[in-house]
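Q: what does this look like with thymidine-5'-diphosphate bound?
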Amino acid sequence: MTILVTGGAGFIGGNFVLDWLARHDEKLVNLDALTYAGNLETLQTVARHPQHVFVRGDIGDRDGVAALLRQHRPRAVVNFAAESHVDRSIHGPADFIQTNIVGTFNLLECVREYWSGLDGEERAAFRFLHVSTDEVYGTLQAGDAPFAETHRYEPNSPYSASKAASDHLVRAWHHTYGLPVLTTNCSNNYGPYHFPEKLIPLVILNALAGKPLPIYGDGRQVRDWLYVKDHCGAIRRVLEAGVPGETYNVGGWNEKTNLEVVHAICAILDRTRPRADGLGYREQIQFVADRPGHDRRYAIDAGKLERELGWRPEETFDSGIAKTVEWYLANPEWIEHVSSGSYRDWLNKQYG
Ligand code: NAD
Ligand code: TYD
């Protein structure tokens, strides 16, 4: 038995691959284009794992994906591959359209062709799991009920619009062609191997480097935060027991303002790595220009996943953020590697 994972050198995909190989004997083929966000160092401990096959390639490469499916004959495909950073999508949406929409379309077509050729039992058992985001639902006001699976799609950024489009394609490939798809819409993840363009790793690393901690606008935007290992557990559960054609919201029941998140990180660092001058890390907070079209609040109702498949997150925000800070303190080499070259170019573009 084999599964094919796309985007398995990125943040969530990388954590998924590591957890999968630690838990299963099943072969995992990992297709990743190694964009700026893909990092083979995340996969260093499984580079020679007998059940891990890494293939550098693009989900938009029709012949390449088709050949990979023919060669490895997976029982499931889990699609993490995407452009994932909202701020980058504002600066340059083209890559988001290409990978998230055209790439997903291409992957669906290759998978449909492969799945159509499977025989009865294999065909019935096959699954295509599409990993998506809560951002497709748009923004909430304070006091609104959290996003349920029935919430209308109202994406506001080029990133969320491209993910919404991909979700619609996945849905249509089920309704029209019968492809056995599953879609998960998850809230903001955090944890090990998170690329430091995103809020939490950026703040940890800037704090330690004595740099400003940039907060967009008033910092009172709300996100629901989920520890990445919990997201991986939810995906495994949906893959195992989800009903084809269904979507499942995944969240941590942890709504926090961005300021609360940054304060929590500062408090941990104040205890574990106090500043030499005796001042707190909060001193480094700097309010900067807001993100255009910045969604005010995301909140996820993950009740369906709990009721129907028995999944709940294991980490609280306090336990997850403590583990995350600890991981960044313990892994300077990984950070050093991602902090080079193109990453620095991005920081210059975004923050000057
Ligand atoms: P990431 O940017 O860290 O990783 C994306 C990975 O996909 C990288 O390894 C990259 O090299 C690869 N990739 C990009 N384009 C590709 C292509 N055309 N072909 C093959 N590989 C390609 O992203 P992430 O944070 O790990 O997110 C993974 C998935 O989860 C995305 O679909 C994202 O929309 C979704 N998601 C992310 C979050 C979050 O908080 N990070 C929350 C919910 C959902
Ligand atoms: P981010 O990690 O980019 O995730 P997303 O935009 O997908 O939710 O941002 C999380 C929140 O933090 C979001 O409201 C934007 C905010 N933010 C800042 O205030 N400063 C920053 O430097 C970054 C990267 C994000």
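The first strand starts at residue 2 and ends at 6. Residues 2-193+228-253+298-315+341-351 form a domain with the Rossmann fold fold (CATH 3.40.50.720).
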